[in-house]
């Protein structure tokens, strides 16, 4: 596949797809990057970071032993860290961690096929210092953390408790005599478990523990704790630390365990922005809201929506390009084998992935802007917007991670057997994203947090009180009765809100009926949780549909007609897909008729056909470089079979024609001598 100048040519099918694309791919790239200037900056950063030869591993990571994999990941993390420190700060100093942090995140994928052992340092340790420390503490810890002298992680979860933070058992007891806290792990179940980088990499961590002073427990608080010697890296006396062992994914993250045996830390190592311990042991609460110490989790939930949108875009790019290259079966006897992308069922599997990647990215951008507003409010001492934001970020984290994981797995299915190859990168993308459904708050648990807020909002609507923006629709749908059906995009969004309102109303009725039978409110709630989770999901789906539709319209106001058309097709596809997926709900809560359902299905199939010629252009517009995609099936040039063979030949088993196990076991077996 090389021309006579040695330049590798692009697969002919892919080249034809690109030639037939109806729009200028760069225009959509600019939209997704938030403007042409952002694209230019991103590309500049990518150009001078991704040329490094250290990106190419002679032996694929997945063929290394767990220890070698970890060591390789540390090596690359240090090189990546140095790169960030030396070069990327030129792009705006600390600002690099603001607007360009998403670019950093993208580039990191070129360095690590799995996870950097330093992810938690940049992703949670540094943000927690920013969010939970006083200005004085920040000036002590931030410079050391940013220069990587102090390397940290976030150790909250314990063997016995992850979800129920109030149930954590690690204690931090204040000793006024020495002005120290004594950290202790009273039981096996109180051992910290899971923190990324804890096993072997970090020398500090943020430990969340129950604070005791003057004989009283004041609940969980965060502390900065040094666990290893800075010179020798040996665990300090009183610290028991190690790695938790192999997992479905995250295998280069050295997730660890940690126990304390009456381990002492200075008083000022308590993160004191939201609560303080005075020298004499007096507890001073500064957090009027009560849940400000959960701030890092909220921040990461916001980040995760963007994270999974990007990973879904990677999977969609791989699967769509592969589907344009792969030919299989025949549609009519004797005809040439079609590209598998021409099968309507394949389009059904894949185009929703492209649309969902857009929907989640636009929703994530909107969520980030909303979050920035909440942070500004908090800086001015206003915490009124927190309950709504907690409900919103919880459900968006739950639904985005769940949708992305399911659709990434669908991308793998759509690549047949080759999708199962590690070299396709789909298994690693999946194993990474499926974890997001659990960490930083389990799916069900977070939806139940949202449901709590929705039920309260419903009660406020009943009482005629004003509602906050994301639930203001409840006033409109408050009265019983079906939502009128209208098959326009706006109509489908309204119907989605109508379904959410109907489900919330049904939950309220169930809880009240159960309470009437003599059950406590808690028991009635518990018996209704299946419905409550479904109501929170419906609410979240309506929010995503609404934000995606309105943001896509806003963003494309000045776009060329062709870009506007294809973006409109994608949003309409997303809305029709979910209307059809939730048709039972629509039949129950809206006035949709059987003919309307037939029309919805027909329109959906028409959209698949309309999007088909632009499918490759749409994934090209994600503009994800080959080094970041890391996939034999998804590279820009479409040299799928050549890359599969090149990667197979790198397998250590192919380094010698005969493996020694033949002489040790097979031959004796064959000769009856075993
Ligand atoms: C090399 C890399 C390069 C660059 C990197 C740069 C950036 C990368 C950044 C991000 C990358 C993205 C991802 C990777 C990051 C990390 C990866 C992996 C690590 C994962 C880490 C973890 O998982 S850390 C542990 C997380 N744990 C959890 O999430 C636990 C979940 N549980 C809870 O949150 C709570 O226990 C609970 C909310 C379920 C219940 O809390 P509880 O105290 O019991 O409260 P309730 O009694 O139920 O409710 C009381 C009221 O409080 C309200 N509430 C609860 N939580 C909040 C909140 N957070 N904010 C506001 N309000 C809250 C609740 O609604 C109740 O209100 P009422 O009015 O109803 O009473
Ligand atoms: C890859 C990975 C990385 C992680 N990294 C970190 C880290 O760096 N630092 C850290 O501190 N933690 C980390 N964690 C831990 C993570 O935050 C927890 O695993 C997560 O919050 C879920 O808690 P759990 O494991 O206790 O699950 P559990 O709460 O035990 O959940 C088990 C089941 O019980 C259900 N359940 C639990 N409570 C309720 C309820 N109230 N109502 C209904 N159902 C319920 C859940 O829905 C789930 O189905 C990581 C986890 C993973 C998988």
UniProtKB/TrEMBL annotation:
Q: Gene3D superfamilies under this entry?
A: Acyl-CoA dehydrogenase/oxidase, N-terminal domain, Butyryl-CoA Dehydrogenase, subunit A, domain 2, Butyryl-CoA Dehydrogenase, subunit A, domain 3
Q: Which GO terms describe its biological process?
A: fatty acid beta-oxidation using acyl-CoA oxidase; lipid homeostasis
Query: Which keywords label this protein?
Result: FAD, Fatty acid metabolism, Flavoprotein, Lipid metabolism, Oxidoreductase, Peroxisome
In its keyword annotation, does this UniProt entry include Membrane? no
Q: What is the lineage of its organism?
A: Eukaryota, Metazoa, Ecdysozoa, Arthropoda, Hexapoda
> In what pathway does it function?
Lipid metabolism; peroxisomal fatty acid beta-oxidation
Look up and give the organism this protein is from: Manduca sexta (Tobacco hawkmoth)
| GO molecular function terms noted in the UniProt entry | acyl-CoA oxidase activity; FAD binding; fatty acid binding
Q: Name one GO cellular component term.
A: peroxisome
Q: What is this protein called?
A: Acyl-coenzyme A oxidase
Every copy of the Acyl-coenzyme A oxidase N-terminal domain together lies at 24-151
Family per similarity comment:
Belongs to the acyl-CoA oxidase family.
Q: Where in the numbering of this chain does the Acyl-CoA oxidase C-terminal domain appear?
A: 490-671
Location(s) in or outside the cell:
Peroxisome
